[in-house]
Write a structure and sequence with these properties.
heterodimer, A: 161 residues, Immunoglobulin-like, five-stranded mixed sheet, B: 550 residues, Cytochrome C Oxidase, Chain A, 18 helices, 0% strand, globular
Chain lengths: 161, 550
């Protein structure tokens, strides 16, 4: 099939940019470890309250891990537990979350923390909180009448140490 | 030429196509009104009367505009285009289309009644384990099965044409309609199995639990192809109709066919890019589908080149000089050209936004924020919809034996600018506030006067302003529709079908060798989905019971 000369240039430039772009996000994902939240761990969604670590939602300091804190979150229509968490700025935190009923969207507004919570699955994401402030945690997947009232607060504070 | 002989759509076929248009524009009226209510509520200045819920209104909006308007318009338009370019349908084919139309209409009515009774406030994506009434699911099944019957009629007419014209490339518009129908068949297998094997028996109580991730994966196997099912009819008009309207010719028949085949291949094995932030799917398979998703950028670039090459060739033919002189020579006063052209322009930011959305880890910045709503109000609700309006302005009078008068042409241009203006405000505000974190599909909320949520309110007021202007645009287009359907003067409005440029080369028949393309398509789907789906099935948790939380 015949292609016009300019069209060849255009497509070469376009496809070239596309390849560069894919390489950039691929290196970011596989080399620098910046993958979207993709945990494949499962749980019985009817037994969440009795299953560790979800029997004790909240922030925990941990040692011997690649991260400093674990934030365990349980979502249910239309609440988040805990309702508030306070964490020192600069700490690396692993968020471990699941739902007790329908699908919820765990989003910390103003950050890159954004993951779906689906019944039967545990969602995880590791990130460093490098800005102080009060960040609104909301639900960004429709879950019923009270969807827009579902909230929690993540307070990133100056470290005392 | 063949084209002159059959330059009018057969009268009986015109009735089939027109029946689809009535439902489509009725859906536009209802869905548009719901959109207006939503932007009002979300501004925080207005509350819905009585017991009407925000999410009920949102469900009507999504179902009417995302599913009903689009499917009916597309099936009606494609049916007319096949009849116009491949010749009238046989009695059997036409009966299949009529049954399909009535089945879709019945299904729409069933779904609509359940939504109005507040038995199906699950939004148009109906994600489990929120559980709607079984009549809602059955209604949606009828819409899909009905669309299959209308699609089968088109494919059958195409096969008949190919048999009668051995060794010749089929008429371009017929070919494109068939590609889109085939894509629709392959894609809807996903949603049909989700509904028939899982949601319907589950809502009837025949099975107790469904696997939520499987339902979502089946939905998005269908869901991204759905957006290309909306887009390809617009591309049909751009490639094969707009050139005739401006007095030019198709830049390249082969290139048009190749780009359609590439869309067919890369529309389906890409659903994971809607599930990038979900658990249960490993990052590797997400990334693979991200790569496949980005392959559609290639036919998009080809289309952009073809369009502007065609515009330039025509503009120079009309005496345009210099680097950009040809641009001014184009028929800007013709709504049939200008309205789709505005749609094309909107596709530049819309496409760029789409690339951001599908970019693996970058998706986390915008996933389920109202940025996404802003994005698809540019793609489907501007690019696609304005092109559909541009089509309607000649198709409806052609089907009803009337003409587009100069007054209506002017009103159509006013409509398009109203739309572009309103959408710039609404979609712009949505994109911006989405980056700040405001969620999509959410009623007005200050989240207990959280500082961040308070910052979003001015943008939500801007959305209401833009949405109100858009609603005025809907009133204008409904006035034009009513005029063209019932009141415009009788006459012969042309169904424009462009011919290929003289210097273009002969179309290679490999582009119509379905065995090759279907094999590649099936192979891509198997590569993209087999292992991750087996992982979900084998490693799946206890399934979910239904919830009704509204």
């Amino acid at each position: 099939m015949h292609l016009h000369r300019y069209e060849k240039w255009w497509l070469t430039f376009g496809v070239g940019s596309l390849v560069v772009f894919l390489v950039v996000i691929g290196v970011g994902a596989f080399h620098q470890g910046h993958q979207p939240p993709s945990s494949v761990k499962t749980i019985n969604y009817e037994q969440v309250d009795k299953t560790a670590p979800f029997d004790e939602p909240g922030l925990k300091k941990v040692s011997g891990q690649d991260w400093d804190y674990e934030l365990v979150v349980v979502a249910s229509a239309f609440y988040y537990a805990p309702v508030e968490a306070e964490i020192p700025v600069g700490s690396k935190v692993k968020i471990i979350a699941t739902t007790k009923d329908v699908v919820h969207g765990f989003e910390v507004a103003g950050t890159n923390i954004n993951m779906m919570l689906e019944p039967g699955y545990i969602s995880e994401y590791v990130t460093t909180l490098d800005k102080t402030g009060e960040f609104l945690v909301l639900c960004n997947e429709y879950c019923g009448t009270g969807h827009h009232t579902m909230k929690s607060m993540l307070k990133v504070v100056e470290s005392n140490e | 030429m063949n084209n002159q002989l059959i330059s009018r759509v057969n009268k009986q076929d015109a009735r089939v196509a027109m029946a689809h248009m009535y439902v489509a524009f009725l859906a536009l009226a209802i869905g548009g009104l719901m959109g207006l209510l939503q932007v009002f509520v979300r501004s925080g200045k207005y509350e819905l009367p009585g017991n009407i819920g925000y999410y009920q209104v949102l469900t009507v909006h999504g179902v009417m505009l995302g599913l009903v308007l689009t499917t009916f318009f597309i099936m009606g338009f494609q049916y007319a285009a096949v009849s116009r370019t491949a010749g009238a349908f046989s009695a059997k084919q036409r009966t299949s289309a009529w049954i399909g139309f009535w089945l879709m209409t019945l299904g729409t009515a069933m779904a609509a009644v359940m939504i109005l009774l507040n038995e199906a406030t699950v939004l148009y994506t109906f994600y489990a384990p929120l559980q709607a009434h079984w009549i809602f699911y059955l209604g949606l099944t009828f819409v899909v099965v009905g669309s299959w019957l209308v699609g089968f009629a088109q494919v059958s007419r195409y096969v008949q044409w190919r048999k009668a014209h051995k060794g010749e490339p089929s008429p371009l518009l017929t070919f494109m309609a068939v590609v889109n129908s085939v894509m629709w068949f392959v894609a809807t297998i996903g949603v049909a199995s989700e509904v028939l094997l899982q949601l319907l028996p589950w809502s009837l109580g025949l099975i107790e639990r469904v696997d939520v991730l499987i339902t979502r994966t089946l939905f998005w196997y269908f869901g991204h192809a759905l957006v290309y099912f909306w887009l390809l009819p617009a591309y049909m008009a751009w490639y094969a109709i707009v050139p005739k309207i401006i007095g030019g010719r198709i830049f390249s028949d082969s290139l048009a066919r190749l780009s359609f085949m590439l869309f067919l291949l890369f529309s389906i094995p890409v659903g994971f890019h809607h599930q990038l932030t979900e658990p249960g799917i490993s990052a590797f398979w997400k990334f693979l589908q991200v790569i496949l998703t980005f392959m559609v950028i290639i036919p998009s670039l080809m289309t952009a080149f073809s369009m502007f090459a065609m515009f330039e060739m025509r503009g120079r033919e009309l005496g345009g000089k210099g680097l950009f002189g040809w641009f001014r020579k184009l028929p800007w006063g013709d709504a049939r050209f200008l309205v789709p052209f505005i749609g094309m322009v909107a596709f530049i930011p819309a496409g760029a936004g789409g690339i951001i959305n599908a970019s693996h880890q970058m998706n986390q910045v915008v996933h389920n924020t109202i940025w996404v709503t802003g994005h698809f109000h540019l793609t489907v609700a501007t690019t696609v919809l304005l092109t559909f309006f541009g089509i309607a302005y000649w198709l409806i009078p052609h089907l009803t034996g009337r003409v587009l008068t100069p007054q209506m042409n002017t009103l159509a241009i006013v409509q398009a600018f109203t739309w572009a203006f309103g959408m710039t405000i609404m979609s712009g505000a949505m994109h911006w506030v989405g980056l700040l974190g405001a969620p999509r599909r959410s009623s007005f909320s200050t989240y207990g006067d959280a500082a961040q949520a308070m910052e979003w309110i001015p943008y939500q007021i801007a959305q209401a302003v833009g949405g109100t202007i858009l609603f005025l645009g809907i009133i204008l287009v409904l006035i034009i529709f009513a005029n063209l359907a019932w009141f415009a003067p009788k006459g012969d409005e042309e169904f424009p079908v462009a011919e290929v440029a003289e210097q273009a080369e002969k179309t290679p028949m490999v582009l119509e060798n379905w065995k090759i393309w279907m094999t590649v398509l099936v192979a891509l789907i198997l590569i993209a989905y087999t292992i991750p789906v087996m992982d979900i099935v084998n490693g799946g948790p206890l399934g979910s019971k239904g919830f009704k939380l509204w």
